[in-house]
Amino acid sequence: MILIISLSIIFCVGQSLQTKSNLTLDDFFNNTEFASLSFSPTGQHLLYQTMRPAWNSNAYEYTLWVYNIDSYKKTSIISTLGYFLSPRWSPSGNTIAFIHTEYLLSNSTDDHQRLSEKSYYIYFYSILTEELHTIENTLERPSTFAWSDQDSSLFLVTSTSRFVNNDEDILAYREQINNHISTIHRLDFDWTNDRPSLRQFTPIITVPLRLSDFLYVPLEQKLIFLSTSPLIDDLNSFEIYSIDLRNQSLLTRLTHNQGFEIGLQLSPSGKHLLFRNYTRRSSRTIFHDTQRRLYSLDLTNGHTERYGSDFLGNIVGYVPKSDGGVYFLGQHKTNVGIYTQQSLEDTTVHHLGWEGTYEHISSSINRPQAIAFAYSSFDRPKEIYYVDDIKQLQFAKAITNENQHLTERIIPKATVYQWKDEVSNETIEGILHYPPGKDQEDNLPLFVLMHGGPYDASVNSFFAGWYTWAPLAAAHGWLVLEPNFRGSSGYGDEFLDEIRRQPLTRSTRDIISGVDQLIKDGIVDSNRLTIGGYSYGGFLTNWIITQTDRFNAALSGSGSIDHTSSWGTMDLPVLFHHLFGGYPWDESHIYQTQSPIFQLDRIRTPTLIVTGEKDIRVDPAQSYMLERSLHYLGVPVNLIVFPGEGHELSVNPWHGKIKVREELKWLQKYGHRTAKFY
Ligand SMILES: *[C@@H]1O[C@H](CO)[C@@H](O)[C@H](O)[C@H]1NC(C)=O
Ligand SMILES: *[C@@H]1O[C@H](CO)[C@@H](O)[C@H](O)[C@H]1NC(C)=O
Ligand SMILES: *[C@@H]1O[C@H](CO)[C@@H](O)[C@H](O)[C@H]1NC(C)=O
Ligand SMILES: *[C@@H]1O[C@H](CO)[C@@H](O)[C@H](O)[C@H]1NC(C)=O
Ligand SMILES: *[C@@H]1O[C@H](CO)[C@@H](O)[C@H](O)[C@H]1NC(C)=O
Ligand SMILES: *[C@@H]1O[C@H](CO)[C@@H](O)[C@H](O)[C@H]1NC(C)=O
């Protein structure tokens, strides 16, 4: 029996090596992403959400799934072109509730217009009958909800404009931003024959805030939420609040810090509130800028304490453990692993798993040892995994095979590559993706793909998309370097903050020294260098091509060329305030000397520019200015503007695919030629 199995394995491997073909654009963009994952309170089921392109509808299709851990049965609950807001298990684990946005698909050719007409419903899915029901009334813009401690009531948040008259559109800008109120309602319903029917819909409190994360704390009969704002300039807009249902719905603010709070979760004891936060704040005297950290707030006395304070990297996710303590996802250098801290007094322990990237971790009180997560690595496309006992993490089994088609292709080999920054003598690293079969070859053409952020990192994962498309570029013959330059997360808080007051120049030095090392090592052909990136990667691209003409082709995605006007138009001015050391009038020298706009006449590199038409992070005007300048200067340039898209290019899957298709063509057209354009 064993012999037969091993023979058949050899046969399969032998066969697949022969028949595997290179990744194509179509394969790469036809992938499935996982948007959420959670255990049922009983520990019996996993609920997860997938997202994949619906090419014929010019939209993404979302599907909610339930997986039964004991019977291995997978059931799809509903598939739609709309996103499901916060699918949540009821306290008993018998029901899943979610808010569904139904797009009223019009015939508009404008994607944004087409998807902007919506109506909202709250749905209930019964695990027992496998039926889906909705309660009758259409909702006014729900933003989130939380179950109470019973299966027959929940708290729902709806949001509206404060001013509901026809002047709304012409309100002063600043008023528009704050023109928001949220109302929390209690919904009580009856279950008859496994069908919910609405009994009562009671408003509880209205607050002049936008709410994001929202929880019910049974022990204290409190509602807890996070306030948020579309304009990220005042960190007081991002705080945690509680509402005491026992005391006239008294609203209390729980945090008063200079950080962004994200990802609220309640400890299983119901006594602690966990959250992550990070700082982007500076003043003339004090500043700190941190990676993401994890805190626990004692709801009885208001004290906060920090988890994982001995962990050097960036905490990208977590789940409270049933026996106290936490599991957290920690990005350290190019891996994202699972760590445990049993109590605040204990040290952090790294669970021995696979190299790569763990995401969406979930655990259950009723299966304290079990764990579920999404995982991918350089050579393994993303799937969801489950294991009964976290001690056996390396033996976790995939419960999905959504990206099977990618495993049938040759996935380019990738390794971590290190070099030294001569000035600081610090080790910098990046990821190299080799063209298939060429990992031993010299003199390869290079494409430097820089991540955004800047507080982000390129990691050992497989995310097929328009932002992280290194494997596809490698499959098209490029050696891809993804550098984790100064400013990247996962290398300690100091590494992150070293770019302050010299954001473009400091990161550039690390990137160029990596390219030099690759040439010195003989791996790269110095006559065939190309470079590109999106967002902060676009900022760097725009800067680097003003500093050197060594690159034959450049891909500039949603970058900035004049940081003063970018500061003035972006939704994240606090980032620039921090990066440049102050406001433009405080630090005009830094804003000016780090801005490409005054040096554009030095550019010799043919440049393809892309931007979303409705990007409010980096104004498309920056890309138009770059296009106009290069056009006048006689440097080959093309600007592609994606209609209806914001910074995330998340509206129409064709846009991301077309972006990369055109970028590959640009690299192919100009990347191998050394002719300079003077
Ligand atoms: C994408 O995947 C779907 C489902 O697996 C398949 O039917 C379709 O042909 C694929 N499309 C492309 C362009 O590869
Ligand atoms: C949308 O297009 C369909 C088919 O072309 C047509 O039957 C329908 O009347 C159109 N609807 C509107 C609102 O224009
Ligand atoms: C209700 O809130 C008020 C105002 O903070 C406080 O003085 C009072 O003690 C609270 N009552 C109870 C029962 O907690
Ligand atoms: C995070 O929140 C805690 C509790 O409010 C606070 O002490 C800490 O300074 C904050 N940290 C960051 C990095 O914002
Ligand atoms: C640079 O760092 C290496 C260790 O990474 C050390 O051996 C060497 O002495 C350092 N050189 C200088 C000039 O500090
Ligand atoms: C895959 O791509 C590499 C690099 O472009 C090329 O050398 C190789 O021949 C391709 N292999 C197949 C099977 O097409």
Automatic annotation (TrEMBL):
GO terms for biological process: proteolysis. It comes from the Eukaryota. SUPFAM superfamilies: alpha/beta-Hydrolases (SSF53474), DPP6 N-terminal domain-like (SSF82171). GO terms for molecular function: serine-type endopeptidase activity. Residues 1-16 form the signal peptide. The lineage of its organism: Eukaryota, Metazoa, Spiralia, Gnathifera, Rotifera. Residues 472-670 form the Peptidase S9 prolyl oligopeptidase catalytic domain. PANTHER family: ACYLAMINO-ACID-RELEASING ENZYME, SERINE PEPTIDASE S9 FAMILY MEMBER. This is Peptidase S9 prolyl oligopeptidase catalytic domain-containing protein. InterPro entries: 6-blade_b-propeller_TolB-like, AB_hydrolase_fold, Peptidase_S9_cat, WD40. Keywords: Hydrolase, Protease, Serine protease, Signal.
